[in-house]
Amino acid sequence: MQKLSVAVAVFAVLAALVGAHKGASDLFVLAGAAALCAYTTWRAADISSYLKIFATIFSTETVVFGLIGLAEAEGLWPAALKDYAPPQSMPLTVAVFSILVYAVSHIRVVREMMRITDFYFDSKDRGEGRVWPLPPFAARESAIAVAMVVVLVLINQGQVGITVRLSFFNRDWFNAIQEKNAPEFWRQLFFVFTPWAFVYVASAVIEFVLQSLLVIRWRRWLTEHYIGRWLGTHTHYGMALAGGGADNPDQRIAEDVNRFINGAEEGYGVYSYTILLIATLSSLVSFSYVLWDLSGNYPLPGTDIYIPGFLFWVVLLYATVGTAVTHLIGRSLTGLYFERQRREADFRFSLARLREYSEQVALLAGESAERGSLLQRFMGIIVNYLAIVQKRKQLMVFTATYGQISPIIPYVITAPFYFAGRIQLGVMTQTASAFGRVEGALTFFINYYTSLANFKSVLDRLTSFDGAIDSARAQIVRTRIVSPAEGDDIRLREVTLSLPDGRSIVAIDDLTLSAGQSTLLSGPSGSGKSTLFRAIAGVWPYAVGEALTPKGARVMLAPQRPYIPMGSLADAIVYPSAGADHSRAAMEEALRAAKLAPFISRLDEDNHWSQRLSGGEQQRVAIARALLAKPDWLFLDEATSALDEELEEEIYSMLRQRLLKTTIVSIGHRSTLHAFHERHIVMEPAAGGLFSPRDKVHA
Ligand code: ADP
Ligand code: MG
Q1: Which of 38, 393, 460, 697 is the most buried (most CB within 10 A)?
Q2: Under a CB-based contact definition with an 8 Å cutoff, are residues 612 and 605 in contact?
Q3: Which of 503, 505, 520 best tests ligand 1's pocket when mutated (most atoms within 8 Å of CB)?
Q4: φ and ψ at residue 77, rounded to 5 degrees
Q5: How many angstroms does the Cα of residue 684 sit away from the middle of ligand 2?
Q6: Computed from CA positions of residues 73, 76, 78, 84, in that sequence, does the dihedral angle turn out positive or negative?
Q7: Whether the CB of 529 sits within 6 Å of ligand 1
Q8: Confidence label for 579 from pLDDT (cuts 50, 70 and 90)
Q9: What one-character DSSP code corresponds to residue 101?
Q10: How confident is the model over 324-356, as pLDDT tens digits?
């Protein structure tokens, strides 16, 4: 950035010198703009990485096009290449663009947008790319992405150039038609239109492919990023406990990420708002120049007075009024779209949840209650939908009228001149098309207003998701009480466990769980037994104190309702390790030991096992899991509560036989469990409504 800035500054000096030499005032303007551009380029070292790409492109172009322009002014540009020199206005335009990029980087919503965008463009990950027909290569993922963005911007600028060139073809062609000049008509068609049109089509196809690839790479990366952040250090659990903050993380990861980058039916994403915006702006500027020049053909009606850039001012006024009115009407759409995302996601989630709990609902005959609550949720969607329709209806009355009138206006303005014979047909049509282009570009914000509103809501959802992740993480880190220590025992000192709302429920002065001593924990329901286990497992983020666990020890916790992942039974018993980690024989043996022998033949069957298996069978799946994992510590939180006493006893004695190196700590209520534990701890009420674990001595 610094080097580039110096280059731009040197160019500014050169332009000023040539300007003095030639006495050309426009070169002084260019020199001034370049000087400012040199400054912003220097400062741009600190802006978002993504925006930096654009600042770099434009500053580089300022120097390149500017030098060509100077060479031309000094008569150094080869005459043979005359037709290929960029228009005089080009360096100034790109210099201003570069300055603009720097300026917008300070706008708040742009910063928010760029914060998320830069996750990808700042990433250090390696990626693999391939440019046909060369072989694949490895590079930094962000470098590949930057290269793609650069090419896309250049393609878009080139396309604007072609469109401008074709507008002159349009003028000459219609003039040929008016003059009945057949040879010129065909010459224009075959030697001007055809090659440019071909280049345009080719570039459009390349653009499409590149854009699609960039978008999917970016989405893959960002999805991985969010999944990683969400799952890391149990953040997802912390977020669920904390509640509020970010509803429906699933939807944010699956949908909002895609919308953010790529947009959706109702709108565009970052990709479009940057690269499309630049194409639109380039088009705006180029055709504004065309329109400005064409204005020289039109004096004020009935006079010989020419207002410089007359047509340009007309279209500017026209589009500004349009944008302002649209903004007034459509202002409240942002909030409505935000609300829509939330309601749709809530509805979908309740359906998914119903599917998960369908048996319980059926048993309770809760269908009509479910129907009621589903329909009520859906009503929420409808209310929001109708509010959106209402707003968009008002907006549409205006935008549709506007859209109908727009193509007519330039003809209405130019027709008197044409009929008076002051302009040719070609000039009239070129004026109309330039007018249309400028108006189209200016109304970019009008036409995309709704999508901008929508985009803002996606941005807000991702931003608040990030915020919720960060605060959940901070909570987890701040309250991390578990730390690895030397020794074999688990020791808790002055630990207080609380609920998410801040209420304390468990107080522990000093509790040591000795390795090799199986322990039973009992106590009233709701006395915080499970919470204590969660704290020892290191997932409960509302704790103060100190918990020391043996360094490197593997701790496994089996809850009352074990988690059965989607997939095969084999996946379920080896979870969370991979199937390859355990031999087939070991899996079968574990099933047999857990009294699940009949399922051995169904190990590979993909099924909704969490719904197919009975509660007791699911608990035994968790036991089989523990047998395979052979943890150093096994915490069984009412993990055998669904088994009859006899089976529970068999399972416990089997565990003690097979897991010789494992210390078992259980929560349970049945007195028969005492026989399998060497120590018994009871949760007893203590001061302040809290519960504290106390050793119980059996007579
Ligand atoms: P138990 O001793 O029966 O295992 P728990 O440890 O599960 O008791 O729960 C202790 C108390 O904490 C209960 O009053 C329960 O309602 C409350 N609690 C547990 N989990 C949460 C949670 N995620 N949010 C709010 N309260 C909770
Ligand atoms: Mg419990």
Answers
A1: 38
A2: no
A3: 505
A4: -80, 130
A5: 15
A6: negative
A7: yes
A8: low
A9: H
A10: 888 788 778 877 887 887 888 889 888 988 887
Residues in CB range of 275: below 8 A, 6 or more apart:
149, 152, 153, 156, 211
Residue type for position 499: L
Integer-rounded Cα radius of gyration of the chain: 35
Q: Is 257 exposed, middle or buried (0-12, 13-18, 19+ CB in 10 A)?
A: buried
SS3 485: strand
What tokens appear for 26 in the block?
A: 């426009």
Q: For the chain, how many residues are written?
A: 699
Q: How many CB atoms lie within 10 A of CB 140?
A: 14
CA distances from 449 to 228, 281, 287, 445, 603 (A): 33, 16, 22, 5, 55
**DSSP three-state, residue 509:** strand
What is the spatial distance between Cα 63 and Cα 73, in angstroms, rounded to a whole number?
15
Question: Counting ligands in written order, which one lies closest to the CA of residue 524?
Answer: 1
pLDDT in tens, 106-148: 988 889 889 999 999 999 988 888 887 788 888 899 999 999 9
State in Å, rounded, how far the first CA of the chain is from the last one.
Answer: 81
**Is any ligand 1 atom within 6 A of the Cβ of residue 534?**
no
What does 281-297 look like in DSSP terms, one character per residue? Answer: HHHHHHHHHHHHHHHTT
Task: For residue range 240-286, list pLDDT tens digits in order.
Answer: 888 766 777 887 888 888 888 887 655 578 887 888 888 888 888 88
DSSP state of 424: -
Q: Which residue has the tokens 């026209």?
A: 318
Give the residue, by CA position, lying nearest to ligand 1 atom 11: 526
Question: What are the tens digits of pLDDT across the range 453-512?
Answer: 678 878 888 888 888 898 888 888 877 888 888 888 999 999 999 998 889 999 999 899
pLDDT at 267: 59
Segment 32-76, tens digit of pLDDT: 999 999 999 999 988 999 999 999 999 999 999 999 888 888 887
Ligand nearest the Cα of residue 641 is 2
| Partner residues linked to 606 by β-bridges | 568
pTM of the model: 0.82
Angle between helices 194-231 and 449-478 (to 10 degrees): 30
Question: How far, in Å, is the centroid of ligand 1 from the Cα of 672?
Answer: 25
Q: What is the whole-number distance in angstroms between the Cα of residue 526 and the centre of ligand 2? A: 7
| Residue 499, ligand 1, Cβ within 6 A | yes
Q: Name residues whose C-beta falls within 8 Å of residue 654's C-beta, 6 or more positions apart in sequence.
A: 593, 594
What pLDDT is attached to residue 118? 92
According to DSSP, the residues that pair with 490 across neighbouring strands are: 513
Q: Is 527 helix (H, G, I), strand (E, B) or coil?
A: coil
Cβ of 41 less than 6 Å from ligand 1: no
550: enclosing H helix or E strand: strand 543-550
Helices 425-442/277-295 angle, 10° precision: 140
Copy the structure tokens of residue 647: 């089976």
Q: Which atom of ligand 1 is nearest to the CA of 529?
A: 2
577: helix, coil or strand?
coil
**Ligand 1 pocket check for 530: Cβ under 6 Å:** yes
Q: What is the pLDDT of residue 207?
A: 92
Residue closest by Cα to atom 18 of ligand 1: 499
CA of 67 relative to ligand 2 center, distance in Å:
76
Alpha-carbon distance 594 to 598, whole Å?
A: 11
Ligand 1 atom closest to the Cα of residue 241 is 23
Phi then psi for 621, rounded to 5 degrees? -60, -40
For residue 255, the model assigns a pLDDT of 84
**Cα 141 to ligand 2 centroid, rounded to whole Å:** 46
> Is the separation of the CB atoms in 249 and 403 below 8 Å?
no
Cβ 690 under 6 angstroms from ligand 1: no
